Amino acid sequence: MLLRSAPPHRVVRSVSPGHASAPSHAGHSQVLAEKPTEYAGFNIRMAADVDMTPTITNWVPILSSAVTLLFAATVVRRYVRGRKLHVAFWGIGLTMYGIGVLCEALYVLLGWNPLLFRLWYLFGAILTAAWLGQGTVYLLAPRRVAHTLAVMLVIGSVFGAVRVFSATLDPTLLIGGELSGRAIVTPGVRVLTPFFNVSGLVALAGGAAYSSWVFWRRGIMPHRVIGNILIALGALAPGLGGLFSRLGLSGYLYLGELLGAVLMYAGFLRSTRDASAEQVATDPGEPSTVTATKVRPSED
User: Whose CA is closest to 125, among 242, 258, 43?
Assistant: First the structure.
């Protein structure tokens, strides 16, 4: 059975210096003010309170945030033990993932807030996949290449933050009770997402699929074959949900994010179990991954 969010009943307020008009409870949203308004130092076209119809799908982000933040904490603890760069980027990427889905959960509970939306779009929609993918780049690529790409990622992330936090927002463009980039009306902001997401997805899902194939081909570590397959599928799930969202099918984005978090966490736990018993290299307590020519230590 497919779950779909019911269209929200919106209460739209006109914001002007010194006062706000009474809310309108019409069946459809009414835009009572068209001029951009300053909100907490940033431009916003409208200020809208969204009273969303409670559905199962609307509460999915709450569960997603719990799973993702637990996953991030697990990876950060591993970084503290080993101090490996690729684990650091994975930990940062998962923390961004957690912030994104937490903002979705707060949106479900509290309604529209421009700061929450900007944090969601920056961390959830733009940066997460790229930072997770950069962790895989550090794991599999030559160090000089990884360093170069990391510098480019940091510069691009700063640029993206400036663009997102200076954009004009129109929350009346949101549909189906779900956060969406449609609320950004400033040109040139939404075009950033494919550059970050495609590169990050290729690195994360591609790296996991490649490692799984090499383990399978060599007939070693079957639990890491399964674990990397789960990670690759988990990396694909949010993008698939986002595709459905762009096609106007609300609810699938949140479900895709939850499925992605669960699959990647399960794959991580599967890949790292019994690491000390099967360690190939000299780094005790850590699992291994396969490069093109050898097996080397990592913290998958």
Answer: 242
What separation in angstroms does the CA of 62 have from each of 25, 98, 109, 112?
28, 10, 9, 16
**Terminal CA-CA length for the chain:** 34
In this predicted model, what pLDDT tens digit does every residue of 110-127 receive, in sequence order? 888 999 999 999 999 999
Length of the chain, in residues: 300
| φ/ψ of residue 251, rounded to 5 | 100, -30
The torsion defined by the Cα of 96, 98, 104 and 107, in degrees rounded to 10, comes to: -100
pTM as predicted: 0.75
Tell whether the model's pLDDT for residue 134 goes beyond 80: yes
Q: What is the 3-state secondary structure (H, E, C) of the chain?
A: CCCCCCCCEEEEECEECCEECCCECCCCCCCCCCCCEEECCEEECCEEEEECCCCCHHHHHHHHHHHHHHHHHHHHHHHHHHCCHHHHHHHHHHHHHHHHHHHHHHHHHHCCCHHHHHHHHHHHHHHHHHHHHHHHHHHHCCHHHHHHHHHHHHHHHHHHHHHHHCCCECHHHCCCCCCCHHHECCCCCCCHHHHHHHHHHHHHHHHHHHHHHHHHHHCCCHHHHHHHHHHHHHHHHHHHHHHHHHCCCCCHHHHHHHHHHHHHHHHHHHHHCCCCCCCCCCCCCCCEEECCCCEEECCC
Amino acid at 101: V
pLDDT tens figures, 92-102? 999 999 999 99
Q: Which domains does the chain have, with CATH numbers?
A: 9-297 (1.20.1070)
